[in-house]
Amino acid sequence: MSGNLEGRVALVTGSGRGIGRAIAEKLASEGAFIVVNDLDDDVAGETVNAIGALGSKAVACVGDVTTPDFGKRFVDAAVDNFGGVDIIVNNAGYVWDSVIQKMSDEQFEAMLAVHTVAPFRILRAAADFIRPAAKAEMGNGEIRYRKVVNISSVSGLYGNAGQMGYSAGKSALVGMTRTLAKEWGRYNVNVNCVAFGFIRTRMTQELGTGDAIAKIGNREIGMGIQPEMIKAMEQMIPLGRGGTPEEAAGAVYLMCTPEANYISGQVLLAGGGLIM
Ligand code: NAP
Description:
Number of helices: 8
Bound molecules: NADP nicotinamide-adenine-dinucleotide phosphate
CATH topology: Rossmann fold
CATH superfamily: NAD(P)-binding Rossmann-like Domain
Number of domains: 1
Number of strands: 9
Distance between the termini: 41 Å
Largest sheet: 7 strands, parallel
Structural class: alpha/beta
Strand content: 15-25%
CATH class: Alpha Beta
């Protein structure tokens, strides 16, 4: 299969549905092999099959990204099945909102666990492969650019009432992005962040529609937004509407292309022109 990412191996967390699935399919349509992750076996399998139908290859690494050994399992799945690691997209996430006086420690810590600690562990595990691989390549006079894309949110950049934990976790990802860009520049890794505005997925569906409950571990978390809030948000967006998962994936893809080889430590806001 030919494409801009031919021969690349991409790991995408939370790629069973929503934006993560669209990212996995976009990267695969450009020739990348994909390690798919989701909490749910069946949903992960659907993405793997969809990628097969696109003419590329994928394997599933099912499980909760917040489990301590997940990072190693994920990286091993890429190396064992496809021989390397070129692109890591830290996308898995969910919202568990409350105003501060109602937010429990469990809620706050869960947001940090999925949006901050899990990406940290995945990237730390990837260092075991990336550092020696890059050194060996440079020793052979080769430069292979690798990509990390961390998924943040306008909430992480500007704050959002009711999202103390979520905004803290997403904001930390921006700091991690800038730090790792400085640590891994020497290994030719571009480390960037894509922050989304309002993208239409399960997480942002109108309350009372669709599969409004996400099962995260042993917790059931209600998803969705009041219809009047959705209307208000769309009025604030210069393009006048929420984005599609495919449009969100396009922004991530840009950061994974060879054309972005000199871009690192940046935050790209994909929000239809929204500036808060
Ligand atoms: P979504 O449709 O609910 O998809 C989230 C995906 O993440 C699902 O595949 C889910 O797995 C997976 N996931 C959640 N927690 C996980 C965990 N602990 N371990 C492994 N997988 C996990 O949501 P989305 O809108 O596509 O969100 C994707 C990312 O974009 C998130 O990081 C979100 O914070 C960010 N974001 C979204 C928006 C937006 O407007 N939609 C805006 C800003 C940022 P299951 O299918 O098993 O539940």
